[in-house]
UniProtKB/TrEMBL annotation:
Organism: Pendulispora brunnea
Annotated GO MF terms: transaminase activity
Family (UniProt): In the C-terminal section; belongs to the class-I pyridoxal-phosphate-dependent aminotransferase family.
Domain HTH gntR-type: 37-105
Keywords: Aminotransferase, DNA-binding, Pyridoxal phosphate, Transcription, Transcription regulation, Transferase
Gene3D superfamilies the record matches: Type I PLP-dependent aspartate aminotransferase-like (Major domain), Winged helix-like DNA-binding domain superfamily/Winged helix DNA-binding domain
Classification via SMART domains: HTH_GNTR
SUPFAM superfamilies the record matches: PLP-dependent transferases (SSF53383), Winged helix' DNA-binding domain (SSF46785)
CDD domains: AAT_like, WHTH_GntR
Keyword DNA-binding: yes
Record's protein name: PLP-dependent aminotransferase family protein
Amino acid sequence: MVYRLLAYLETGILAMAISAPFAMTTLHLPIDRASGIPIYRQIYDGLRQAILDGVLRPRQKVPSTRALAEQLDVSRLPVLTAYEQLLHECYLEGRIGSGTFVSAALPDHMLRSPDAAYRHPRPLPAARDYGGLGPFRTSLPALDQFPQALWARLVARHAHAMTRAQMAYGDPAGVVALRDAIAEHLRAARGVRCEAEQVLVVPGSQAALRVAAAVLLARGDGVAVEEPGYPGARAALTAGGARAIPVPVDEEGLRVSALRTRGRVRAAYVTPSHQYPLGTSMTAARRLELLDWASRQKAWILEDDYDSDYRYVSRPLGALQGMDAHARVIYIGSFSKVLFPALRIGYVVVPPALLPRFADARASLDLFSPTLYQLALAEFLREGHFARHVRRMRGVYLKRRDALLTGLARHCSGRLFVHNADAGLHVTVLLAAGMNDGDVVARMAARGLTATELSACYAGRTRRQGLLLGFGGSTERRLLEATRILGETLSQ
């Protein structure tokens, strides 16, 4: 439609700004008083052509004659004359008490549009499916257990109390109260060494990585990523032209010895508390080795602590950043998995020397995060609701993880093998020889199950075949039923 409107502007016939279908339409009819063509005829021709071209659609409301006359700065008489002719020829129809509309009875063969590209000769692609709420959806928390009534009260309270200053543009770094609360939580629960001034609020971990890449990486720079690793991180870090350099992981985490052979690397992205996707935790020795590498190479470490709150075989591990004596670690986290994804609040803890550059890059991302949710979340943290929620959810997720493991043992024995189930909201399983995880995921989708193939997490050619089975968003009963369906699928 944009192209038709531009064409009308260029020819002086008609320009239109159209609202939702069947709603009132604002018309802009450039009137050429020097053309010698009567004004009523210019209005008639413009409206008729717009209807025939499909710019004005059947049953779409047009302005009243009085309103259009005011818009065009002409008397009402030529508008009345144009409308009368269009009504007589059945291009328009009047509805008593409702107004004037484009006729719904125009023959289809009369309607045409020279701009075939705009008229979409082929159906539009379906909206992308992000996995919904189906069983085994990874990264999905227990939305049924979230204290929604409490959260609604906090949001409503702050919505009613928002000042004019809070309704204006906010600080790109985030609301001060939230930055204070995040810093306090990270110091106590994760062993992160930071002050509130080092915390920048962002829409999520992906946004944090984009900001970090904008500051730390130039086109052609090498950034080390875990192999296998999180595909979203690779995409975010290389969007500006940096090169992803896969570095293998083993049972102790990223292999720093292999990292040293990769030449000049500007930064390394790691998930040390719960490696994505294999689930292992980086050992203390390997952490110290990585920190020594960063210090010697003057490189940066991007620590993504994406779901460190939930461990089932030990207490939560401290952050790598807390061991850093040389301020080389940028710490990234979000509330998507611990609260709910639609909250869209994450954070990045930045070494003091990098703060000015990170602040500028964060502001250029989207100016600032929505203030209302930041205010509500600050209170949620400050009043202890967050800590209580996390403690309660550890028990919920332990039961759900155990139900998944029970179902896998009962229905999928011999066809897949559990690789790691120590922490987080998903279990990593390896498929029996001869199975293709992409084919398995497609067959699962046909049965209403959602999973992520392990092979998609590899950047190189060597790819293990397996599945990432999320359990956070499904009840124990639903997980047991889903494993039965998975077993049937694998038996095919």
